[in-house]
């Protein structure tokens, strides 16, 4: 198991938020679940840029932080669904702000991306 050499500053709200939302696909996963996509296979289809392994790993981290919960239905085939917890619903305003900023700054980011790639 990995042991941190430098302790995390969990007195800082930004650090705590980054710890929970850190990970390339976590905001997208939260947004997908908010839009009604609850099953792992649906998440994999919705977020095609991420591998199923990465999505599953980040789902596990969101579960560990209490942002989402997991319901397993009995029977075959096994059915699993994810939902936002009340704590997870409290993050939605951050996801909304990220979306708004991205929409407002799309042209700038595309221009900078093209400049650095070219």
From TrEMBL:
Keywords: DNA-binding, Transcription, Transcription regulation. Residues 12-110 form the HTH hxlR-type domain. SUPFAM superfamilies: Winged helix' DNA-binding domain. This is Helix-turn-helix transcriptional regulator. One of its GO terms (molecular function) is DNA binding. InterPro entries: HTH_HxlR (IPR002577), WH-like_DNA-bd_sf (IPR036388), WH_DNA-bd_sf (IPR036390). The lineage of its organism: Bacteria, Pseudomonadati, Bacteroidota, Flavobacteriia, Flavobacteriales. It holds the Pfam family HxlR. Signal peptide: none annotated.
């Amino acid at each position: 198991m990995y042991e941190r050499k430098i302790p995390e500053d969990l007195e800082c709200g930004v650090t705590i938020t980054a710890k929970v939302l850190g990970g390339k696909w976590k905001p997208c996963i939260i947004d997908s679940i908010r839009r009604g996509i609850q099953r792992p296979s649906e998440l994999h289809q919705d977020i095609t840029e991420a591998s199923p392994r990465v999505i599953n790993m980040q789902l596990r981290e969101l579960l560990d932080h209490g942002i989402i919960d997991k319901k397993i239905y009995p029977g075959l085939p096994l059915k699993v669904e994810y939902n936002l917890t009340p704590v997870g619903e409290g993050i939605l305003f951050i996801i909304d702000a990220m979306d708004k900023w991205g929409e407002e700054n799309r042209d700038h980011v595309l221009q900078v991306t093209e400049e650095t790639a070219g």
